[in-house]
Design brief:
Number of domains: 2
Strand order of the largest sheet: 14-17-18-13-12-19-20
Radius of gyration: 23 Å
Number of helices: 15
Distance between the termini: 64 Å
Largest sheet: 7 strands, mixed
CATH class of the largest domain: Alpha Beta
C-alpha cells in the first residue's frame, strides 16, 4: 500500500461538498450547510449541503425527466454496458484517493476500506454492467393461436438511502442493478458518509452517465429521506439502515403512491461454535475479525457468540487473545486492524450497552472502554461480554460497535433456539466438522445467509437479504435485478 500517498491525502484540503442534481453541482436551496467531522480526530474538515425537501424534489424531477425521455433506458444494452464498464474502470483507477476520503469521514481502517469500498464498488458496477445484455424476456407455453411474451422493463425512478458504515459497497449494491436495469436514481447518503459517494457519482458522469440519471442529495433523513419516501414520482425505494427508519419509509410509501420498498435492516447474528469445529484456533481468529473489524460497524457482524459449554472457557480465552492483539487506532495507518467509531453519538450508544451489562452483573472479559481519547477521535477497545442472558438488551438489539455477547449452550437444539431467539434474521455461522449437523443447522437457523466453518466473504454471485426484522428484498447477485425491473405481459392473438 502506498503509505506516502496516504500521508499526502490524509490532510489534503477537501472543498465544500455540493449536491449533484441533473448533472450540476449545487448548494442547498437555502444555502444551509453542516460540518463534516472526522472520527479520526473529532475535527471538522469540510462542509456538506443540508439538503431541503425542495432539493430532493428537484433531483426527483430530474430523474423523472431523464427516465421518461429515455436518455438512459433507451440506450442500447451495449452502449449502457460500455458506460458502466468505463465508470468501474475510473473508480478503480482512483481507488486509493476515494478510500482515504471515505476513511476521513467514517473511520474504517484503510486496509479494509480500500478493498471493501472503491474496489468493491468497481467490481459490483462491472458485474451488473456485464449482465445488461443478458437480461432476457420469456415466451410462455401458450396454446396454438396465441403468443405470450413476458418483457422485463425498468421500474422507473429509484430512491436509494444509504448508511454510513460502507457507503460505496452498499451504494453500489443499489446503483449497479438499478442503473443496469435502465432506471434513474436519486440517492441520499448518510449525513456522516457522503463524500465518497459524491466522488464516484462525478466519475460516473465523466464516464458518460447522462445528466439526471444519477442524482445525489445530502442532508438528514428527516428532511431529504422523507421527501424521497413521500414522493409520488419515485417508483422504488431501496434502503439499508435501522428498523425504526424502515418503518417510517413503509408508512410514507403507503401515504403516497404505494411505491415498492425494499429494506435491509441489520441483524443480531449468531456465530455458533460446536466442540467438534475443525479448527478452534481458526474459528477464534475468524470470529474475532467477524465482530471487531470496522469496529463492529457491519450489518452482518457476528455479534452473538454461542459456544458449546465443554469448550466455552477455552474458546473465550482464544478470542480474548485475538481481541487484545488487534491494533485499534488511526484508520489511515495500514497496520491498524480496527479503526474509529463513526461518530461521538455512535460511541456513546455503544458504551451505554456496556454500562447496562455491568449493571446486570455480566462479565466484561476484555475491553468495554473508550481508548485514544487524547486524539479527539472516537475509538473503543474490542469488547467481550460473558455470562450474557438471552433476553439481555445486549443479546437482543444491534449494538453496531465492537461488542461481542457470549452465551454457552449444551445441545444442538438449544443452539438453534438461542440462534433464532431474536427478531432479526440476517446472517449466522456454524462451526462443526459434522456434515449432517451443518446441513441441519443451515435449514433450521432463520437467517438470510448461514456461513459454515467461516464468517463473511460471500461474493456477488449470491444474494444478501434477511428475514424477520432484518427486512426484505435482496442485494447482490442477479436476484437484485428483481427490485428494479417490472414484468409486462404481451398476450397476442395470431
Amino acid at each position: 500500500m502506498d503509505t506516502a500517498r496516504i500521508a499526502s491525502l490524509r490532510s489534503a484540503p477537501v472543498p465544500p461538498a455540493r449536491h449533484l442534481i441533473d448533472g450540476e453541482h449545487l448548494d442547498a436551496s437555502d444555502g444551509a450547510t453542516y460540518q463534516v467531522i472526522s472520527p479520526i480526530d473529532g475535527k471538522p474538515f469540510t462542509t456538506m449541503p443540508a439538503g431541503t425537501a425542495a432539493d430532493a424534489q428537484s433531483a426527483i424531477a430530474a430523474a423523472r425527466t431523464a427516465f421518461d425521455d429515455g436518455r438512459w433506458r433507451g440506450m442500447g444494452p451495449k452502449a449502457r454496458k460500455t458506460v458502466m464498464l468505463r465508470w468501474a474502470d475510473q473508480i478503480e483507477a482512483n481507488a486509493l484517493e476515494i478510500a482515504v476520503l471515505g476513511v476521513r469521514e467514517n473511520g474504517t481502517e484503510i486496509a479494509m476500506a480500500l478493498k471493501a469500498e472503491p474496489l468493491s464498488a468497481a467490481a459490483t458496477i462491472r458485474y451488473y454492467a456485464e449482465a445488461i445484455d443478458k437480461l432476457n424476456g420469456e415466451i410462455a407455453p401458450t396454446e396454438p393461436g396465441t403468443l405470450g411474451l413476458v418483457h422485463r422493463e425498468p421500474a422507473g425512478v429509484v430512491g436509494a438511502i444509504i448508511p454510513w458504515n460502507f457507503p460505496l459497497m452498499i451504494g453500489a449494491w443499489k446503483l449497479g442493478p438499478a442503473l443496469a436495469a435502465g432506471c434513474s436514481v436519486v440517492l441520499k447518503p448518510a449525513e456522516t458518509a457522503s463524500l465518497s459517494l459524491l466522488r464516484i457519482a462525478e466519475l460516473g458522469h465523466e464516464a458518460g452517465l447522462p445528466p439526471g440519471v444519477l442524482n445525489i442529495v445530502t442532508g438528514t433523513g428527516a428532511v431529504v429521506g422523507a421527501a424521497i419516501a413521500e414522493s409520488m414520482q419515485v417508483d422504488v425505494l431501496a434502503f439499508t439502515g435501522s428498523g425504526a427508519t424502515g418503518r417510517k419509509l413503509l408508512e410514507a410509501a403507503a401515504r403516497s403512491n404505494l411505491k415498492r420498498v425494499y429494506l435491509e435492516l441489520g441483524g443480531k447474528s449468531p456465530n455458533i461454535v460446536f466442540a467438534d469445529a475443525p479448527d478452534l484456533d481458526e474459528a477464534a481468529k475468524v470470529s474475532a475479525a467477524g465482530i471487531f473489524r470496522n469496529s463492529g460497524q457491519v450489518c452482518v457482524a457476528g455479534s452473538r457468540l454461542l459456544v458449546e459449554r465443554q469448550v466455552h472457557d477455552a474458546f473465550v480465552e482464544k478470542l480474548v487473545a485475538h481481541a487484545r492483539a488487534m491494533k485499534v487506532g488511526d484508520p489511515l495507518d495500514p497496520e491498524t486492524a480496527a479503526g474509529a467509531i463513526n461518530s461521538q453519538r455512535q460511541l456513546d450508544q455503544t458504551l451505554n450497552f456496556i454500562t447496562e451489562a455491568r449493571s446486570l452483573g455480566r462479565k466484561i472479559v476484555t475491553g468495554g472502554n473508550r481508548i485514544h481519547e487524547e486524539t479527539g477521535g472516537f475509538y473503543m477497545a474490542p469488547t467481550i461480554v460473558a455470562g450474557v442472558e438471552p433476553n439481555d438488551r445486549i443479546a437482543q438489539q444491534e449494538v453496531f460497535g465492537p461488542v461481542l455477547a457470549v452465551m454457552p449452550f449444551e445441545t444442538e437444539e438449544e443452539a438453534v433456539a438461542l440462534a433464532n431467539g431474536t427478531d432479526y434474521g440476517l446472517a449466522a455461522a456454524v462451526w462443526t466438522a459434522n456434515l449432517s449437523r451443518a446441513h441441519r443447522m443451515v435449514r433450521q437457523i432463520r437467517a438470510g445467509v448461514v456461513h459454515v466453518n467461516t464468517y463473511g466473504g460471500a461474493d456477488l454471485t449470491v444474494p444478501l437479504g434477511g428475514v424477520g426484522q432484518s427486512g426484505n428484498g435482496h442485494d447482490k447477485s442477479l436476484h437484485a435485478f428483481d427490485k428494479y425491473l417490472d414484468l409486462k405481459t404481451a398476450w397476442i392473438k395470431l
